Amino acid sequence: MASAVPGPDVPTVFLHSSFRTSSTWLWGKFRADPMRMCFYEVFQERLSDLTLSACLTVGPDSWQSGHPPGPPYLLEFIPLLRPGGGVDGYDDSMAFETMIPEGGLGGELTPEERSYLSSMIGLAKAQGKQPVLSCTRSLGRAAALKRTFGGVHVLLWRNLHHQWLSYAHQQEIGNPYFLHSLCWTLTAKRLTDNLGCDPILRLLMLYMVNHCGNKTADWIPPADCDHAYVAFTALHLHLTMAALQAADVLVDVNRLTSGDMAHRQDIEDRVAALSGRPLSLNDAHETIQRPSLRLKDPDYVWEQIELMFAAIKAATNPDAQTLSFGRSLLDQAKAACLTAV
Predict the structure, then answer these.
(1) What is the per-residue burial (b if ≥16 Cβ within 10 Å, else e) of 264-287?
(2) Summary count for the chain: helices (H), strands (E)
(3) Which of 52-56, 171-175, 232-236, 255-259 has the lowest average pLDDT?
(4) Which end of the chain is more exposed for a tag (fewer CB within 10 A), N or C?
(5) What is the widest separation between alpha-carbon atoms in the chain?
(6) CB–CB of 281/29 below 8 Å?
């Protein structure tokens, strides 16, 4: 098992995922290694006005997160706090406005993003630790991150239907953030100002505006649950297939939580080999929420999703591995969805 003390050339580890995918659990497994410095959700909006008090208190018990117990999320950011609050170098636009790079999924990071992320990487290395950056808003810029920083890129995903159920559950308990994030992603100014940069994102934006209006408040189920489900599934399919191209390590949460020991061993071995540090995934488990929110017409929904998948294939011309990966994501989500109906 690799266990070298990190040196100046130690690779940075990037954890790519969307929301509600067990990403906090995976980040926590890396954070358990004292020779790693693990930054939590490096593009989140909270960082724009982060305070020392928040760094010391915001954690799994601060909200109905469903996250495993642990210390506060944001301790690693303390050395980067500005005197007046906020993390040095972070800008609100990094949450959703630059989630898709200029020019689309093949574009590059902004100079501000490069400088901001470099400050975290430099801080960790100056302390003799391996930098680990958790990114729940990075699927669309995973390739750009790899081109810029190299490193080890871990792609985490969950059955898309189970992920949707977690979004819907959070909505039911009074937290619409995750459903709103769908709107914020598809109506980001960079995307609406450059409609040709990605034809799939343009298609999804027009689909949602046509069916649900152009304001965030209009996109909240149950009135448009079916349309939101189509957009959610197609968006995550498109972005996850794109992120696959940059991934060095693949983490299927559902395989882990079902007790697939071969998959767990493969992840642990690859992380150790590529990063030079060990990783243990010994306590993976999944909680599947059962919100009252239901699809009105599942057959229609999946017809629309298949049309979206066809559009993704036509627009991106994926290689055989990526196409098979996307097909598997859809088949697993559809099986889970229709079984629950």
Answers:
(1) beebbebbeebbbbebebeebebe
(2) 13, 5
(3) 171-175
(4) C
(5) 55
(6) yes
Distance CA 190, CA 97 (A): 6
As a dihedral over the C-alpha atoms of residue 81, residue 84, residue 88, residue 92, rounded to 10 degrees, the angle is 120
Which of 79, 215, 41, 68 has the alpha carbon at shortest distance from 224?
Answer: 215
**CA dist., res. 89 & res. 92, Å (int):** 10
- Give me the residue label for tokens 């990071």: 109
Task: With H, G, I as helix, E, B as strand and everything else as coil, classify residue 63.
Answer: coil
| Cβ(100)–Cβ(198) below 8 Å | yes
Q: Which residues of 108-127 are buried (b: 16+ CB within 10 A; e: fewer)?
A: bbbeebbebbebbbebbbee
CB of 256 closer than 8 Å to CB of 281: yes
The fraction of the chain above a pLDDT of 70, given in percent, is 91
Model-wide pTM > 0.85: yes
C-alpha neighbours within 13 Å on the C-beta side of residue 123: 18
Provide the token pair at 257: 């939580």
Evaluate whether 104 touches 198 at the Cβ level (below 8 Å).
yes
Q: How far apart are CA 37 and CA 12, in angstroms?
A: 10
Q: How many residues does the chain have?
A: 341
Q: In the beta sheet, which residues pair with residue 182?
A: none
Is residue 197's pLDDT more than 90? no
Instruction: Please report, rounded to a whole number, the percentage of residues in the chain having pLDDT higher than 90.
Output: 70
Nearest to residue 85, comparing CAs of 113, 53, 57, 111?
53
Tell me what pLDDT residue 1 has: 45
What are 195's two structure tokens? Answer: 């409609």
Write down the CATH number for the domain with range 13-340. 3.40.50
pLDDT of residue 206: 86
Q: Which helix (H) or strand (E) holds 148?
A: helix 142-149
Domain boundaries, the chain: 13-340
Q: What distance in Å separates the CA atoms of residue 148 and residue 164, rounded to the nearest whole number?
A: 32
Distance of CA 332 to the CA centre of its chain: 19
